[in-house]
Sequence to fold (536 residues):
Amino acid sequence: MTRPAPQTVAAAILSSIARHAGRTALVAADGTTVTYGQLGDRIALAVAQLRMLGRGPGDRVGIWLPNGPDWPVWQFACALLGIVVVPLNLRYRSGELLYVLEKSRTSTIIGQSRFLNNDFLARLGEIAGGTVGEGDRTRIAPLPALERIVLLDDAAVPGTVPVRELAPQPATCEELSALALARRGTDPMWLFWTSGTTNHPKGVLVAQDAIINVWNWTTLARYGVEDRVLATFPLFYVAGHFWCMLGPLLHGATAVLGQLFTPAEVVELCRRERVTVLCGVPTMLRGFITDAAFDRTAFSHVRKGWFGGGNITPDEVATLRSAIGFDYLIQVYGMTELLGFSMSTSPEDPDEIVATTCGRPLPDMEYRLVKPGTLEDVPEGEVGELLHRGHRMLGYEAMDPQESARFFEPDGWFHTGDLMRRRADGRYEFSGRIKDLIKVAGENIAAGEIEDLLRGHPELREVAVLGVPDEQRGEVPIAFVECAPGSRIDAAGLTQWCRERAAPFKIPKAFHFVSAKDWPRTPSGKLAKWQLRTSP
Fold:
């Protein structure tokens, strides 16, 4: 008998802990394992620690952590307390971090001092113009809402508090149950930040009942108690968060938390941890089987897989299934605003359907196709903009009401900005994007955000950024720039300038220098950006 879908994240995790206490819930990249029972113990302590910090319903808590067991521990503690989690991109530089923390009104950050080459405390210091506070209190003038920074790696820095100093008695089972009962499906749970058509990231506020959508799709994909699901995406994005971590835990499965997402790490974890569910963007999956060092035995336990965010042919689907050993592959479509996945093919679908369609809408997802810029439905079989109505985000955070109104119709329809065609069998085919987005290895970035960054360079007068196909990453940004008279800046200098101010995936792969007279323009004098695609 199929269990009903959980209604809140809080209730879902307590149910999984009770049913699967002795089973392995999490495996870290270094091999550390955490059972469901141990996960429950850690959540109980984190709940008490958040209470000790004075955090409760409605507060905003940022999480700046790499993939690992600590991420779900703090997320579930927040879920039980009614706190909104603000996932923070590990690659943010100071300007990006300032924007997200300010707009989200984050009061507490749970993090570590650095990850790889990104020094988190240095970024905060750049925002503060010096130290981030005194004693264990955070004081950063541009971020008046930020009161506490809790460090899990015990770094001793003024303005932060090592987690070891927060040592209350863990919450009891009775207290955790009472907290879960107090939560409602409409309670805000996450504030994901995603690039969009504006030149800044958009804050997407998502409720606890998004867990229903996670349950619906992972049930369709046949996640089961014996599965070991590899996270090939960061947990600060909805793809990794919902489908690689939260989804497995709903079914008593094991989430294997990859951290670097390199081919070498994926191969090692698949082999060592006997991964059964492997996902990724098409370029990632293709890369495994075309690598000279490809070894089929590393994937000997893989049986299920899914992909999205790129084109693939039926022959490639068949090749992937044969080479890696997938029993089935599933194509998905969605966005953070639509609670992650909102359309999907099925395990029974043939390769042609999997490769050429996004499948059918998930439950509680209603769609229509209209002529772009209108609300006029397109004839059956024609391409139109995809509008959505039904189970979705609560709204955009800190967005001007007039800007937000561009996305929402009064009767509830949401403009996705994506172009689709509906087939006679009810499946949808993706045709392109209205939005000026560049998708780099599965990560969306607005071209306008990179353009605004480059316009801050004192030696540039005009800029335009486009996405171009890339064999390894799907798409990459390239920039067309006009320099001020007398400028000596070159591509290497612009690349270095960008590196100091933006996450690596936002840095243009190439710079093309354009003279003032050579910009393509419309009759009204506006930049004809699309014509740059055919420029020599």
The radius of gyration is 23 Å. The chain has a mean pLDDT of 92. The chain has three domains: 9-23+35-203, 262-433, 437-534.
